[in-house]
Amino acid sequence: MKYIVRIDRSSIKKNPDAGRTMFPMPGCWMPDGKGGMTRGVNMVYQMQPDPNYLAKNAYCEVTCAFCSSKFSHKDLEEDREYIYPDEDYYYIDNICPKCGQRDCCEIEYEKFDQKTGKVIEVK
Questions:
Q1: Percent with pLDDT over 70 in the chain
Q2: Which of 4, 34, 43, 58 might form a disulfide with 8, Cβ 3.0–4.6 angstroms?
Q3: How far apart are the first and last CA of the chain?
């Protein structure tokens, strides 16, 4: 069965940090200039600026196609598996938290435009 995880419309908020490309990270160990270390604040830089709007997904109950357990979409697990030791791995999505079966349900997430704050409906 296919489930659609919708955006919680009431959670859409303007981001107070919109456009920010760096933020302080307190508690980092830094040289104190005397041969020792002290706790300080490092500035962490990111490549893309923070989005204009933030939103959360609404609760969606899903049912495992294998064991028929019901649980929140947030409880689904994911993993990665190597095909051969020298090659890349691939992701395994939607693992049932109860029975451990892969692809126990099909999920599509509603899209959200972080620049305009508008929800793009899933059909």
A1: 94
A2: 58
A3: 15
pLDDT at 35: 82
Q: Alpha carbon 105 to chain centroid distance?
A: 19
3-state secondary structure of 30: strand
CB atoms within 10 A of CB 94: 19
Rounded Cα distance between 46 and 112, Å, is 21
Distance of CA 117 to the CA centre of its chain: 18
> How many whole angstroms separate alpha carbon 1 and alpha carbon 77?
17
- Cβ(11)–Cβ(123) below 8 Å: no
DSSP string, 9-25: GGG-EE-TTTT--EEEE
pLDDT tens digit sequence for 59-95? 999 999 999 999 999 999 998 776 666 667 778 889 9
DSSP bridge pairs for 30 = 38
